[in-house]
């Protein structure tokens, strides 16, 4: 399942890439039965990294907890970075450009 998530994320990046020659500068991943981590970076300023693990393994309350970040350059030329936690409490992003509740 985690491999599928990583694969889909990389596929989405490739599909959304602008026309032109974008080079992959870094691409690392390690997927285990109860955890994963990945990191990638491209020559156009995009990057992402995340690590996750299963909580309450083997119980009916098993859940996935992920901590990571991603970075991209917007159409306005500004670099945006989001750091996030995704766990049983939902997706919790933080970034200088995001409003705070």
UniProtKB/TrEMBL annotation:
Keywords: Cuticle, Signal. Pfam families: Chitin_bind_4. Residues 1-16 form the signal peptide. It comes from the Eukaryota. GO terms for cellular component: chitin-based extracellular matrix. GO terms for molecular function: structural constituent of chitin-based larval cuticle. InterPro entries: CHIT_BIND_RR_consensus, Cuticle_Struct_Prot, Insect_cuticle. PANTHER family: ADULT CUTICLE PROTEIN 65AA-RELATED, CUTICLE PROTEIN. This is Larval cuticle protein 8. It comes from Drosophila willistoni.
